[in-house]
Each structure stands twice: as structure tokens, then as C-alpha cells.
Structures
1.
Amino acid sequence: MSQSSPSGKGMRPSSRKVGILGGGQLARMLAIEGARLGLEIHIMSPSPADPAAQVTNHWLKGELGDLAAMTELLNRVDAVTIESEFVDPKIVLSAEAASGRQVTPSVRLIAELSDRLQQKAWLEKMKIPTAEFVAVQKSSDVENFFAQPNVSAGRGNRAGRAKGVVVKKRRFGYDGYGTFILRSPSDLESWLSEHGLTSAEFIAEKFVPFRRELAVQFAINARGQICEFPLVEWQARDSKCHWVHGPVKARGFDQLSARLRRALVKSGYVGMIAFEIFDTGRELLVNEVAPRVHNSAHYSIEGLYLNQFAAHLQAVLDLDLPRAPTAAAPGFAMLNLIGSSDQAPVLPMTALNEVFFHWYGKRDNRLGRKMGHVTALGPNGPAALKKLLKIEKKMRV
Ligand code: AMP
């Protein structure tokens, strides 16, 4: 499909109404970008104090499981999107049937990609490399997988010999919750005694001795126009994204990116989507797919002229997308501001003058809660990150 087609869809001068299901920080940043684009953003969330509810006059009270509220929101707007994949597809389908309006991305794809087993099947079907895995129905499935020679003995590579199994909850895992790394038979034993008989469903996959974790995001509209965001490196601390920097290069990425783009077109996906990737030094393996805007692209608000939130809204409204956003600087970095306690944070406002500061307006500080983020630009990713890590030392979140 030509991206320079004269029949492309420009923005209509009249303000369009876009509904967002959910009121957290992702919805807040979508709402702020939506307002910048001249859109009327409607938020459905439980409380007017929610991060996204604070930034719009069009707020509707409703939990994600509230069919009546969801139907009402769908009736009020021209297009609807969602900030979290953890929604009950049956409720969305009922609201769609009652209102005659569809949520974007499609709830069918959201449901498929938010189940780790179906996500793995989707990756395999699309010929996208991922870690070997098995579905776990009973404890012996994990034991048998662990006992496989290529799992229990590990395989040498430049990142070293590593062995083990990673057990993951099929649904509702996030920020490392629901992911268990089992490196030894005793880890396996304690996991089995704690979780082996619970009703939650799991998959088990081979431990990947990666050198670094990468991520890439795409925005795609209903006409198949795809905008590819730069490849980034990220690192977690306590299982949560600590920082991101980029752009980075990785051997074999062009091939992987072509496969990802083909998979998106083939599936009819619409909106922003993020892929987390393990780089082992020998190969690139997709670890996780997030069908929404994603923490790994928050840097794009200042690092690129087209950021992920605007790109998502453009995709949802079937407006034209460029092949890639234009970079605002050669390098960028983003650092999450994660709560360290329930005490009020100490923010060095003068030092923050050196960076782009985002605070999500969450009422309570809490250990492990994402409270905000900072972004820096620079001659390259590591230089921008250095600036952020220096500022981090001066603050207590
Ligand atoms: P996930 O729940 O898949 O996002 O995993 C959380 C984190 O656990 C990842 O960012 C990795 O650091 C680590 N992890 C997940 N799966 C694996 C794996 N198969 N091998 C090694 N580390 C993993």
C-alpha cells in the first residue's frame, strides 16, 4: 500500500471525539496528546481523581467491567480505544453490539495477544522467533520441561551457559508479576509447592541467557500504513522498566522487523503495539507483545516529532502515518520514577530543569508504583541516560 497516496486521510478541521477505556497514566498521556491534536477526549474510569480523568472535562464513571458505562462511552464518541489489554472481551463485545461502535484495537486481537499461550502461538504462526515453550496444565508439565536436556543442561553461547525455566501466568501478568524464574531443581520444587496446584494457568519457557533487552513499537492504521519507532534498549530493576535509551542497532533486526510488520498487516491489527525482545548476541527472540501504547516508548514525547500517543490516536482514527517518526535529537533516554515508599517524594525541581519531567498525578505514592518519568535528549542514548541517572541520585520518589 502506497504511503504517499493522494487519497490519504488528513485531519478534518472539526474536532473528533475519542473515548479511552481506563484512566491510568497511559490514558492520561493519550488524553494530553489528543488535546494537542484538537481531539475531544472522553475518559471512562472509576474515579475523577484518576490520572487521565484529571486532564479532561469529559469523564464518565465506570470500571472496565461495567457494561452500561462502556456502552454509554461508545455511544458518546466517534472512536474508542483502550489503555490496558486486561479487559473482559465479552463485556467489550456486548458494548460493541449495543452501541454499534467498535473498540480499536479489535478486542479479538487484544484477547489473543494478552494470553501468553495464545501470544506464543501467534508468534509461531507468524514465524517470529521466540523462546521454546510448553503449555502448563499440571505440575508434571513443568517438571518434564525442566528435565529436557537442552533446558536442564543449558546451551553455551557468548552470554554464557545458562539453564532453567521461566514460568509465566497466561493472563494478567505485568511488570514481572506472574513471571517466575526457576534456575535449579530446588527453585522448581518451591514453585510447585506454592503454585503447582492453583487454578491459574501458566506457560513454561526456556530461560534465555540474553545480553540485553530491546524493544520496538509500531503504529498501524486500518489501511495498513505502518510507522516503525526506533529500536531501543531497556533495563529492568525489581522486574520493572527502570530506563530506556536509544536508538540502538542489533544484528538481524531488519529481518525481524520485516516479519513483525508482515504479521501486523496479516492480523489486521490497528493501533500502537510494542514488542519486547531478548538479544542473546546470536539471535533476537521476541519475549512479549503488548497491544497498546507502552512504557518503552514514553521517550517519544520529546525524542521524536511524532510520539507514540499521537501515533496511536492517528492509527485509531485511520489518519495517515509516516513510515517512521522524525527524530528530534540523535539520542534519547527515559527513566521511570518509581515509588520507593508511601512517603511524599522529594523532587529536585531545579535539577529537573535539565530534563523533561512527567508526573502522573497519582494520589498516593507506593512502593513499586510508576509515579512519573523523565526524558533527556543527547548526542546518543548512553549520554542522555547518564544525565538521567545523575538526576535520579538527587531524588527520592
Ligand atoms: P515478562 O513477564 O515476560 O515481561 O518477563 C519479565 C522479565 O523476566 C523479562 O523482562 C526478563 O528480564 C525476564 N524473563 C522473562 N522471560 C525470560 C526468559 N525466557 N529467559 C530469561 N529471562 C526471562
2.
Amino acid sequence: MKRIALFYILLITVCPAFAQNYDESKVPHYTLPDVLKTTSGKAIKSEEKWEKLRRPEVLKLFEDHIYGQMPTEYDSIRYALTEDDGAEMNGRAVLKQVGITVFRKGKSVLINLVLFVPSQAKKPVPVFLLINNRGKENTDPTRAKKSEFWPAEMVVDSGFAIAAFHVSDLAPDNKDTYATGVLQKLYPEQLKKDNGMKAIGAWAWGASRVMDYFQTDKDIDSKKVIVVGHSRGGKTSLWAAAQDRRFAACVTNCSGNTGAALARRQYGERISRINASFPHWFNNNYKKYNDKENALPVDQHMLIALIAPRPVYATNASKDLWADPKGTFLALKAAEPVYALYGIKPELPKDAPGIDKPVIGHRFGYHNREGEHNMTSYDWANFIRFTKGF
Ligand code: GCU
């Protein structure tokens, strides 16, 4: 027993990547990159200059240094729809299952979309789209299994449609096989580039193809699609919303490192650790920032800023220090100056709110739920409140 303890102490001493900090007093002093200053030092003072000069620059920095390129061209896309009478929810919603096949250079990828649309709806409805990184049973179309992770009944009863696809349709979440989906089939050239997309990029790409489908579905208000993700899925929902401005809003649940939490705080999970455990998530260039957070030309507040002026809801859970609740709140707060360029007044309090005290504004939502790393009906109830007057 003692030997094991000694081994861990040694490991922590010799290998800083394993020493994660949970002590606020040990958060180093840091300065965030100025989201409103271009790389060449030009101050950005208007929406127009942000849109024209700085936003494209910031997007490219995230692409080159973290998430990889996002290819948008493909040859064709086909939708195979099956619709039923809604027996799964006793008539409260109609179930649509859509096979979305995307073709490029003779090869294809199939994304399976599950979608429930409230049957009472008189006009096209807004939809929550979950990027599902957990088991497929969480989004069971038959509703034999029900899960708080995707509480379809609750969402439908609130007047929204709810949809989901599984990340494995795009890229298996595995360092040895992640390339066997979209990457090898549609965009093999991406695998050769240091700024090429990897699994998280492929999942976000999938969300955009679902968006392509929504634009053809008369039951859905495609101007009101809220992209949702938990944890690694929440890192993806941010990247999807940053890249694809058709998403009207973003929910990033417990997304932590390389999601909504500031990297420079070096609190909880760090870049070196995420790259070691999940080398298939981010591009090759990102590995250069292991233990070098301050060398990054961006921090995560800038990813949120790319979503401006659209609404963003970020969450944490009180026991999930790994995902740095305070660093998540601070990232949202540090994105506010970009929203201000669009005439949006700061909505967030100076300090992070207490546990189970949601802050729900027009553009920003935040809460730190009591409990573990998860996405629950408490979280969803707040997402619904946030997007209600949509
Ligand atoms: C790991 C990983 C996190 C990630 C989480 C998840 O804990 O370190 O970065 O968010 O898995 O996806 O559940």
C-alpha cells in the first residue's frame, strides 16, 4: 500500500502532466489574449471591424492550433426519412428517423438522426440537437429506455423538437480507430495536415450536416436550432456553433478543458493531460501547447466570442472540479466585450453564482449544478428556460 502511495507521489513529482491543481491559491497569474486586438496589434472597436478583421483571424487561430480545419464541400447529400404516428410518446410527438448520407469522390458516410417533433405544433418549431457522446440507449427512439441525458418527453412538452445523432457515425471515439469514419472516407487529406481535423472536428462537421437536413424539414424552424453537447460533446457544440453560424444558440454542458473553461488557469484538467489521454480529439499542432498554455494565441473565451451575438449557455457541476467551474464562468465573462460590439449589455454578474443558482440572461446562461459530471433534467429545464422566448 505504502509503495503504491510512494509511486504516485513520485509520478506527480517527476511528471507534471499528472499533477492537476485543485487549489485556487495555486492558479498562476495569467493574462488572457486580447480578443479585441488583432495579431498585428490593431484595436477592434466596432462590430464591423470584428466581423471583417478579427473574427476570421480568431476562427483561423482555433482551426490551426486546436480543432483543425473544417471542410465544408461535399458532392451531394441524401435524406432517407421514415416517419410514424407517434405511438412512442402516446401521440404527443411524431418520430422522424432520418438517414443522412453525405457523398464525396465516390465514398459516403451515413449519419442516423433521431427526431421527435411535438404533434400539436401549428408552425415550425425550434429544435435542440444533441451531439451524443454517450451510449445510444440515451436517445432511444422507441422510448422503452428513457434517460435524463436526453429527456425527450420533457423537451417536447415544452414545445420544442428534440434531435440527436451519435458521434460514432462520424468518428469512433478511440485513438486507434477515429480516422475510419468521415476522415478516411471523405476527407483523407485532412489526416496529413498538422492543422487537419480530428474526432471533435468530425463530430462538429456532423452537426452541420444535420443542420443541412433541418433546412429542408418544414416542421423545423431552422433559424432556431440549438446545438447541445455534454463534456467532449460540449467541446464539440462550441466548435460547431463557432464554425457554423446557422446554429442559433449553443449549450455547452460541463465541457471543461478545451471546451468552455479557460486554459491559462491551469486548474483541473490541463492541455498536456487531455492530449495524452485523447490524442485523437484535437489537431497535431495542439500538442505543442502541452504545459505551455500561455504560448497559445487564444484562450477559450475567444471561442465563445466567435458565437456572438448568439446565445450561449454553459454549465458545470459542483463536484466536477476537473472541468473548472470558475474558469468556465470567467471565460463567458471575458467574451462579453465582443457581445458588447453588437450592442449587448453585460448580463453576467462579476463573480460566479453559487451552486444551483442559474443566471439566465438573453445571451448568456450559466449554472453550477449540485452534483457530479453529467447532464440531467435540472440542466435541461434551465436550457428550456433560457431559450423559451426564442
Ligand atoms: C474526460 C476528459 C474530459 C471530458 C470528459 C467527458 O474526463 O478528460 O476532457 O470532457 O472525459 O467527455 O466526459
